[in-house]
């Protein structure tokens, strides 16, 4: 997949030094270096005007992925960072044996992925990002609502690991993602509860969006321009339109890898 008209497949676009950004903010993220860089290249592939869109991350931990997107999109003025700052909630049955066992034995990174709210706020100030950041502390179930987000979402990054943490965000924010916007699903290949939540969500809303991968490393959904369900169109009308010839996918949607 080419991420940019001037980029060779798999390479950072020439105007974005993804490696430099990764070096600077990688230490604030749990992602490995390669995945971090791929996330940046994918985010950069959006053809949306990010000065008119927002970026949302649910599950920010120490902020590395959000900081990188703040550096990547200097004209974007609306970032939302959601996290409990109390670590992960307990996993459920749908999250699988490995999750249940790790949780029981308390083997997660730093006490169930705990990160400090004060440290995050300090880092935002030190990097000069504080003004553009809206930090929402608490459980997604209590904090994630579409009315907090003013501009259509250009990038929605899901990184909450578990079924419930993924599903609640999709249920509440998918409709606010702009056509051509990206939903990056960090844990799709890592935790069965996350992939199950994505599948359940897509099938519940009879969504036409496929799950795509970027270099077999990052799973994402590119919101289609013909997303009837987000536009208040009735189920009957959706069925009728689906039977008609599919409209072309806009250029705003990155090509499938
Ligand atoms: C894997 S870490 C996020 C890693 C981070 N995005 C990065 O780039 O390193 C998962 C984070 O999600 C948060 N989290 C998971 N489920 C949550 C929920 N239901 N409500 C609030 N925070 C949640 C945890 O507190 C934790 O900080």
Commentary on this structure:
- The radius of gyration is 18 Å and the shape is globular.
- α1 packs antiparallel against α3 and α8 packs parallel to α9.
- With 257 residues, it is of the alpha/beta class.
- The protein has a seven-stranded mixed beta sheet, with helices on both faces.
- The chain has ten helices and seven strands.
- The N and C termini lie close together (4 Å).
- β6 and β7 form a beta hairpin.
- The chain is 35% helix and 15% strand.
- The chain has a single domain (18-244), classed as 3-Layer(aba) Sandwich (Rossmann fold), CATH 3.40.50.150.
- The longest helix is centred in the last third of the chain and has 13 residues, at 192-204.
- The structure holds S-adenosylmethionine.
- S-adenosylmethionine binds next to α3.
In short, what is this structure?
By secondary structure, the protein is α/β, with parallel strands linked by helices.
Helix and strand topology:
Elements: H1 18-25, H2 33-44, E1 54-58, H3 64-72, E2 78-83, H4 96-104, H5 110-113, H6 117-126, E3 133-137, H7 140-143, E4 153-158, H8 163-173, E5 177-185, H9 192-204, E6 212-214, E7 218-222, H10 235-243
Helix pairs in contact: 1-2, 1-3, 2-3, 8-9
The structure holds S-adenosylmethionine.
- What would CATH call the homologous superfamily? Vaccinia Virus protein VP39
Which CATH architecture? 3-Layer(aba) Sandwich
SSE succession: HHEHEHHHEHEHEHEEH
Topology, number of strands: 7
Catalogue the unreliable spans. 1-14, 245-257
Judged by helices, strands and strand pairing, the structural class is: alpha/beta
Name the CATH class: Alpha Beta
> Per the principal axes of the C-alpha atoms, what is the gross shape?
globular
